[in-house]
Amino acid sequence: MEPKQLKPLELEDLLITCCNRLPKAFLIIDALNESERSPNITRSIDRILQQCSSARILISSTEELLATQGLLDATIIPMETKQMMEDLDLYILLRLANEESLWNLPQGLKDNIKYTLLEGSSGMY
Asked: Which residues 6+ apart lie within 8 Å of 26 measured at CB?
């Protein structure tokens, strides 16, 4: 038997119930901008904040999305595309250097892999 998938309102109610039982509850929402349902998530966040005084919400997102969202009671950390690209670049370099199966690849191919991943990422990973 597969576990029941909660509907969004049921999940909100569950989060509110749990938050209200704790002196402080921290919810972290990463990369809100990467979800096609960000307006629905925003409405859920607003509802949780209204009904749970112990809730503290941390959101990471790009500034483009934040400009369209009205989350006044949430702490929002804007993610700068330049910084994300630098982080992704470093991650790729480390993986190419530390992944044993990639050690013997020609440098030109490693450079091509890095370029392709960076260009295809649009600053997200």
From this structure: 55, 56, 57, 58
